[in-house]
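Example record used in the benchmark description.
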Amino acid sequence: MTTPRIRAKDLMSEAELAEVRTRSGWKGPALIAHAWALILGSVAMVALWPNPLTFIVAVGIIGSRQLGLAILMHDGAHGSLANGARLNLWLSQWLCAYPVFSETRAYRAYHLQHHARTQQDDDPDLVLSAPFPITPVSYRRKFWRDISGQTGFSQRKAQLLNALGEGAMPWRQRLARFWGKLGPQLVVNLVLLAGFSAAGVWWAYPLLWLLPLLTWMMVITRIRNIAEHAVVPDNDDPLRNTRTTRANVLERLFIAPYYVNYHLEHHLMMYVPCYNLRRVHEILSKGPHAGRMEVQPSYPAVLRLATARSNDQDRPGRRISGERSARAGAGLTESQVTSGF
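Model output (structure tokens):
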């Protein structure tokens, strides 16, 4: 079933629409540069002042910027990262998607189905929101799987097996399939390893690139998924089947980079570049639909909603198929298998 929609011209004036739809030639690339500057700056911080505190802070910052790269890849999938289709795809692939073992085109094909069928029974991302609310104990188990690397390892293993293919296959065909699925991602990661090694900090690749990718990025990816669509008030109302979550400075640094918290605004106007979503929120908050918008004050507030089920309650969440339910328990979706995110 296709999700009901609200026309953009019913949300704001023509002048406001023109303002928020305008794409900058430099803001998207600047956000990419910002992400990599924070990543490399965090590595330098640990190299200069090696101690447990700087290491933990660096893992948190780098993991959030890895999610940030995936978010910017997402903007690229919507054609909003840069002016010009070729530049948009190149930036999205080589500087955002490939470093975190993702792929823009595979993600785009999957993700547009989510926009067309948000919170409907055939929404490919329903597996991420349907199980909620859950108990606090259940969430703590999920958090442990994420922070300990179990979720990340499961995703990378599934991605590797998918790239290798199943059954009998000539080795040339298998190699071609593997290269098509993971070749550029491996090349970019080898370049990262070579760069760290040339700088005399080879250890930064396993400890400050792979470790955040498998741990903190998994924690905040789950939190982001919960915040966007879990326990929303109305699955059929486009103003209430998706959520915007207000984020303070620390939340933006460690959990919700690059305007990802403005998810309701993104669903209402999915071709607006991410750096204009805050302006969309400001306009809508003063408009006639402000009272209907699903907005929460913080990520802790959303987690309280998502973990509001007591141990002796029957779960009121929606039913999903056994295969999709198992995938949800592993924190794994088709998009994560095929594109790493």
